[in-house]
């Protein structure tokens, strides 16, 4: 023990010079305690004058060393900052607490409580939708629409939730419907959500992954195998945000085709008569020739 304490003293001197005075005061503390002990006992008795004080001094010096070592352990121990609390004493920077309050507010239909938990620049991504909801106003408008559409007895049930991180939180959940004492799990309602909390205890990012009603199974692996070369060839162009331009291009082609067909078939400025001015004899001749070509083929 003595060697350990000496080594600790040397190490502490090199580690924190500002606290060296505590180490140098070790023997002083021990001497003070030993002197106090002797005086409190009425001084050394006869025959003990050369024995008891020295033993008391040795024991008290060790006690002083123990006190200094304990103070150093307390100094080296990591300090944690207590979480800020609201009026109800709930930690507002605890991600788990914030997310649980969000689900409680959603199940209760308390939109105002949900709004208080959302940051102004919140981004909510529900992978059922093509685009995320950006900003508190957009998210709250979506929440109002959801609560006005779905049945009031439809609620989220948290199966598991992470803890220990003040800014990140993951949740496993499913949806239930019916009375609270005898609920029914809604089909295809399992999912996971991930949340990011800011220093104010507000949600700044959320993402929902919902169970799909169509389960392709191993066929999805085959589809992935077929699509992978195309994605590899397209590179960044395969990004969904870029693929959104394809419907516009297709619509432009179809618009050109419709305009061209209308000009040829229905326009009066093109050579020949328009389709709506075709004589019955010409129509009959076309039908007969079509039938003849069918039989020849």
Per-chain topology:
Blueprint (H helix, E strand, L loop, with lengths): L1 H14 L4 H5 L1 H15 L11 H25 L18 H14 L2 H7 E9 L6 E2 L1 H14 L5 E7 L6 E10 L6 E2 L5 E7 L5 E8 L8 H16 L5 H4 L1 H22 L13 H17 L1
Helix pairs in contact: 1-4, 3-4, 5-6
Structure summary:
The chain has 297 residues and is an alpha+beta fold. The protein has helices at residues 2-15, 20-24, 26-40, 52-76, 95-108, 111-117, 136-149, 219-234, 240-243, 245-266, 280-296; strands spanning 118-126, 133-134, 155-161, 168-177, 184-185, 191-197, 203-210.
Which series of helices and strands comes N to C? Answer: HHHHHHEEHEEEEEHHHH
Helix content: 40-55%
Which structural class is indicated by helix and strand composition? alpha+beta
Give start-end ranges of low-pLDDT stretches: 1-54, 72-92
Mean of residue pLDDT? 75
Radius of gyration, Cα only, in angstroms?
Answer: 40 Å
Counted by DSSP, the helix tally is: 11
Strands, count: 7
Note the beta-strand portion: 15-25%
Molecular shape: elongated
Describe this structure in words.
By secondary structure, the chain is of the alpha+beta class. It has helices at 2-15, 20-24, 26-40, 52-76, 95-108, 111-117, 136-149, 219-234, 240-243, 245-266, 280-296; strands spanning 118-126, 133-134, 155-161, 168-177, 184-185, 191-197, 203-210. Strands 1, 2, 3, 4, 5, 6 and 7 form a 7-stranded mixed sheet that branches. α1 (2-15) crosses α4 (52-76), α3 crosses α4 and α5 (95-108) packs antiparallel against α6 (111-117). 11% of the residues are buried.
């Amino acid at each position: 023990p003595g060697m350990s304490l000496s080594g600790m003293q040397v190490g502490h001197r090199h580690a924190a010079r500002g606290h060296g005075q505590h180490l140098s005061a070790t023997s002083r503390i021990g001497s003070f305690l030993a002197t106090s002990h002797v005086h409190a006992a009425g001084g050394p008795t006869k025959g003990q004058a050369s024995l008891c004080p020295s033993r008391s001094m040795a024991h008290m010096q060790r006690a002083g060393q123990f006190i200094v070592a304990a103070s150093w352990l307390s100094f080296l121990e990591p300090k944690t900052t207590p979480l800020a609390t609201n009026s109800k004493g709930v930690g507002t920077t605890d991600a788990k607490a914030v997310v649980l309050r969000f689900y409680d507010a959603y199940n209760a239909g308390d939109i105002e409580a949900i709004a208080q938990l959302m940051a102004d620049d919140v981004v909510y991504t529900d992978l059922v939708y093509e685009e995320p909801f950006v900003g508190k106003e957009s998210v709250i408008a979506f929440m109002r629409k959801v609560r006005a559409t779905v049945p009031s007895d439809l609620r989220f049930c948290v199966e598991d939730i992470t803890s220990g991180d003040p800014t990140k939180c993951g949740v496993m959940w499913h949806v239930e419907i019916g009375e609270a004492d005898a609920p029914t799990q809604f089909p295809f309602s399992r999912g996971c959500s991930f949340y990011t909390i800011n220093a104010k205890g507000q949600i700044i990012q959320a993402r929902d992954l919902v169970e799909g009603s169509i389960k392709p199974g191993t066929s999805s692996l085959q589809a992935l195998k077929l699509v992978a070369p195309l994605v590899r060839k397209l590179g960044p162009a395969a990004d969904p945000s870029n693929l959104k331009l394809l419907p516009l291009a297709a619509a432009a082609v179809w618009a050109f085709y419709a305009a061209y067909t209308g000009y040829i078939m229905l326009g009066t400025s093109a050579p020949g008569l328009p389709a709506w001015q075709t004589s019955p004899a010409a129509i009959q001749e076309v039908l007969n020739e079509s039938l003849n070509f069918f039989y020849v083929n």
